[in-house]
Design a protein that fits this description.
Blueprint (H helix, E strand, L loop, with lengths): L1 H11 L10 H13 L9 H4 L23 H18 L1 H10 L13 H12 L8 H30 L6 H30 L8 H12 L8 H26 L7 H18 L1 H12 L2 H4 L10 H12 L8 H36 L1
Helix pairs in contact: 4-7, 4-15, 5-15, 7-8, 8-9, 8-10, 10-11, 10-12, 11-15, 12-14
Amino acid sequence: MELEGRSAGGVAGGPAAGPGRSPGESALLDGWLQRGVGRGAGGGEAGACQPPVRQDPESGPEYEALPAGATVTTHMVAGAVAGILEHCVMYPVDCVKTRMQSLQPDPAARYRNVLEALWRIIRTEGLWRPMRGLNVTATGAGPAHALYFACYEKLKKTLSDVIHPGGNSHIANGAAGCVATLLHDAAMNPAEVVKQRMQMYNSPYHRVTDCVRAVWQNEGAGAFYRSYTTQLTMNVPFQAIHFMTYEFLQEHFNPQRRYNPSSHVLSGACAGAVAAAATTPLDVCKTLLNTQESLALNSNITGHITGMASAFRTVYQVGGVTAYFRGVQARVIYQIPSTAIAWSVYEFFKYLITKRQEEWREGK
């Protein structure tokens, strides 16, 4: 994962690894390393104190020597691909999560676990039923994740330079992720509304256009952003918990802060699972705001549920405290591979695009 992979790689692959330097050259290069010149936000002190790492000439360029020159376009393209793959691969589990978060499900849509739910949905409603709404999700995930990763990378570097010049700041990482969430959710929220309504049991919508038209005509344009504040309220602590857990695990699995795909995937997956479990109550409220579940609305005298406070109150009235954790199993199962896929794909495409850009510049 990208948070700490930058710190050690920038040093290990840097000019300090070359032999035969004069004392003046060594002093100058050491000064550059200490100030993080040319390393971006990731040239941390942990990497600077490590011995040089020699690279096998046949193994190609070292991974972490490349992303220092990554452009905003690179971050956006890599982020869009990562977001689309993340949502597409895990979409059937997301469908199950939405149904398991229903406050008063139909007797035919009460499931014991994720596998049983998938089996029953496929057996009774058709093979492709868990994939309904995938097209609108993929359409929204591309621009949403492009904005998220581009904003995150830019803010992380800018804030790190202010808070911890030449180093890596956990505060900067968390703050950048939280701010980037504002853009991500603004682009993704309408797609979430349509997707979740199409995922519900006995949904009357078979096509995205039918759902969009019905919501627009019956509830107005504001319905597409009815859950936006709840989404933000969920995602801000989600990102904070996610990054804090990731940093903690990295200190144990990857104390040298070198690029290590297995440690990044493992740390990211565990961090995503912890954050998902902790923010499940907010996700349940978001699902209620998006779907406006008819049975739950019967217990709410004001009609449409229009705010986070109203959603929290309705969830408690219908199901009590335990209702806030409906679908927690599916949410965690979804988040573990989802986080691993998102970050590993993002890092891979960022590496691939940056490598091709550098080869193109060298060939000019």
